Amino acid sequence: MGGFGEWIKRKRFATAGHIGMLEGRLKDISGLLQETQQSVAETQQSVAEIRQSVAEIRQSVAETQQSVAETQQSVANTREAAQYIRRSVELGTITTGPPIQTGGVGRKTPEQWFDAHYWEAADHVLSFLAASELGIGGLEVADIGSGDGIIDLGLAIRGEPARFVGYDISPTDPDHLAHIAKAAGIDTLPANLRFVESTIDSIPAADESFDAVVTWSVFEHVSEPLAMLKEIRRILRPTGYLMLQLWPFYYSDHGGHLWLSHGGGFPHLLTPDDELVTSLKGKTGTDERRPADDEYLSLNRLTLNELGELMLSAGLKVVRAELMSETVNIPRELTDTPLADQLISGVKLLAVPSQP
Hints:
The longest helix is centred in the first third of the chain and has 90 residues, at about 1-90. The chain has helices at about 1-90, 110-130, 150-160, 175-185, 225-235, 265-270, 275-280, 290-295, 305-315, 340-345; strands at about 140-145, 165-170, 195, 210-215, 235-245, 315-325, 345-355. By secondary structure, the protein is an alpha/beta fold. Strand 4 (about 210-215), helix 5 and strand 5 form a beta-alpha-beta unit. It has 2 domains: about 1-75; about 95-355, 3-Layer(aba) Sandwich (Rossmann fold). Helix 1 packs antiparallel against helix 2 and helix 5 packs across helix 9 (about 305-315). Strands 3-2-1-4-5-7-6 form a 7-stranded mixed β-sheet, sandwiched between helices.
């Protein structure tokens, strides 16, 4: 029995030793587990920090891309302004307004007419917009009063809009425009340019279908100016703008469009209308496609203040303006015309849709 009891005793001691050893190992494993959990927590924290860093880098990249886009737009606008200045220097026509013909100056040749519209008028539009940090590159643009289409051709090619539509109550003839453009070295009309017939008080375009509207030396002839301004507001997108140039105002020296037939000196304000119209019979206007008497009778006699009031009524807010004037001799007989109306010969306006 003693031997068996001794064996039992030894087994107990051995078992206790194994248990102690297992408890030690369990303690070690528990310590390793805690260290692993701590390492996992630290790794998760590191991953979160990395994700935050990636998000900040992405935000920085987005801001850099936005800055690059703004810089590119600024460069494009600067190039437009520089192109205007360079071409104006080449032509010797840096002025505060369009070249003015007086009675001693003959009618422009076809080449001079083309340059005055394709280069000079388009340059005035692009440089005025560039000075406002705007351009028409990539935009959808409408012109109200496209006429022979030469200005539109200049803007469509040199301004690089995505789409350019010229509207006029007398439809622009694309074939004639292509013919005169070819004579000037332009082989074909650009694909982004087309022409549509309009009416005196409506534009056949959908609401909010254009980013920009331009109109050059047209609004002195518009018979329904408020209706047309409302139409312009209707087709403009909320972020769009209108660039309107009016030259000459009726009560200024050349406001009667008579510089080819009567010269300067306010002849339209000093001569009764019936006598003036009779004197214009059989003559062509400043645009040789139009009779001189019809051109004169089409003038709506708007003043700058009246134009401003109509724009407000149409929902358009003027945000930039450039007055155009010239040195004139005012006849003593003119006593009823406000001085401002005599001296302001034209204006360039930038307007945006006003808040409802």
